[in-house]
Amino acid sequence: MSNNAMTGAEILIKALTDQGVDTIFGYPGGAVLPIYDALFKQNSIRHILVRQEGGAVHAAEGYARSTGKPGVVLVTSGPGATNAVTGLTDALMDSIPVVCLTGQVATHMIGNDAFQECDTTGITRPCTKHNYLVRDTADLARVVHEGFYVATNGRPGPVVIDIPKDVQINTADYTAPEKVRHKTYRPRVKGDLEKIREAVEMIANAERPIFYTGGGIINAGPKASALLTQFVRMTGYPITNTLMGLGGYPASDRQYLGMLGMHGSYEANWAMHDCDVMICIGARFDDRVTGRLDAFSPKSKKIHIDIDPSSINKNVRVDLPIIGDAAHILEDMIRIWKAGARQVDPARIEPWWRQIDIWRARNSFAYEQTDKLIKPQRAVEALYEKIKDRDPYITTEVGQHQMWAAQLFKFESPNRWMTSGGLGTMGYGLPAAMGAQIAHPDKLVVDIAGEASIMMNIQEMSTLAQYKLPVKIFILNNQWMGMVRQWQELMHGKRYSESYVESLPDFVKLAESFGAVGLKAETPDEMDSLIDEMIAVDRPVIADVRVDPAENVYPMVPSGAAHNEMILGNEAGAESPQATDQGLALV
Amino acid sequence: MQDTIERHTISAVVDNESGVLARVIGLFSGRGYNIDSLTVSEVDRDNGISRINIVTTGTPMIIEQIKAQLDRLVPVHRVADLTVQGPHIERELALLKVRNSGEKRVEALRIADIFRARAVDATDRSFVFEITGSASKIDAFADLMRPLGLVDMSRTGVAAISRGPDEI
Question: CATH for B6-85, among 3.30.565.10, 3.40.1500.20, 3.30.70.260, 3.40.50.1950?
Answer without folding.
Answer: 3.30.70.260
